[in-house]
Structures are given as structure tokens and as C-alpha cells.
Amino acid sequence: MSENLISIAKILNFHGIKGEAKLGFSKGKEKQIASIEKVFILKDKNYKELNVLSVRFHKHFAIVKFAEFKTVNDVEEYKGCDIYLDKEKVEEFLDSDEFLISDLIGMDVFDEDGCLLGNITAIGENPANNLLSVRDSNGKEHLVPFVKELVPVVDLKNNRVVVNNIEGLIS
């Protein structure tokens, strides 16, 4: 089950006294959050299905009423837990230039001349942008900022990424 679930939000706290949950989520994902009807929550290595009764937004947070949460204590029990959605539902809301991290891991990395540079072993985050961790044929790891100027092509269908290999990026 877990391989088909993607984390989309986190329960930060309760809101009010009627069992509403305050969720944190990535900026720009309001449409996705507003459309959810059923999600999963992970606690103690077990997934529990939650049914969404309502979603509203307050400042930069989502206030969600789950059918299963009746009181503040119900929400408090799951504070800090991630909220998951089926991968198919998440993909419906991706823009053409957005990708799931899990889809990029393992992809081959080529330069603009078609020479294999390595493959993606991980994706890291920093405040400016995500970083692709590319392992070359010698086992050395290189960090590539995941920006259009340096990574002009992501071809999920052919399992390949093209990198503008500027001097010193991947040697």
C-alpha cells in the first residue's frame, strides 16, 4: 500500500474545539488539498483511512474536518503525522514541469551530447531549489541544482534526464 501513497500534508495542530485539524502543505497545492475526499495517515507504521468532510483555508494553512475526528483529543493524537494521498490523485494535479521525487530516483543522467554521466540516487532540498544527487560511474556523488537552466529535459517515459553539464558540475 505505502508504495502507492505520497505525502501531501502534515497535521500541525488542532483548530477550534470540534476536532478540526490544521494542516501544513506545499505552497501552490491549494487546489489539490481542496479536492481531497479520502486520505491516509501514518502513525506507528500503520496507515489509517480518513474521510474528509470539509476543507477551508486560513492564512497559509488548511483547516480540515475529518469524519473520524470528533474532538481536540482526536486530532492531538495525530499531531505531527503526515497525510498521504494515492499517487494517481497526486499526479492529477502536477503541472507539466512537475515530477514526483519517487519517479526521478534511478533515472539515467546524460549531458546535452548524449553521454551518460550517471544516475539519480536521491533528491535533496534546500531553500532555493531541490538538488539532484547524481552518482557517476566512479561512484562519486555530484549535486545538481534542479532548475530548468541546468536540467532542461526530464523524460519520464524513457527514464532519462538531460543536464547542461557546465564546467565543474559533473566532472
Rg for CA atoms: 19 Å
Query: For this structure, what is the CATH class of the largest domain?
Result: Mainly Beta
- Count of distinct strands: 12
Apparent shape: elongated
Give me the CATH superfamily of the largest domain: RimM
Number of structural units classed as domains: 2
Q: Report strand %.
A: over 45%
Average predicted local confidence, pLDDT: 90
Number of helices: 4
Structural class: mainly beta
- Estimated helix fraction: 10-25%
Task: Record keyword descriptors for this entry.
six-stranded mixed β-sheet; mainly beta; 2 domains; SH3 type barrels; Elongation Factor Tu (Ef-tu), domain 3; 171 residues; 12 strands; six-stranded antiparallel beta barrel
Write the layout of secondary structure elements.
Elements (H helix, E strand, L loop, with lengths): L4 E11 L4 E6 L4 H6 L2 E6 L2 E13 L2 E6 L5 H5 L5 E5 H6 L8 H4 L3 E4 L4 E10 L4 E6 L5 E5 L7 E3 L4 E4 L8
Parallel strand pairs: 7-12
Antiparallel strand pairs: 1-2, 1-6, 2-5, 3-4, 3-6, 4-5, 7-8, 8-9, 9-10, 11-12
In words, what does this structure look like?
It is a single chain. The chain is mainly beta. Helices cover 12% and strands 46% of the residues.
In short:
The chain has two domains: about 1-90, Elongation Factor Tu (Ef-tu), domain 3, CATH 2.40.30.60; about 100-165, Roll (SH3 type barrels).
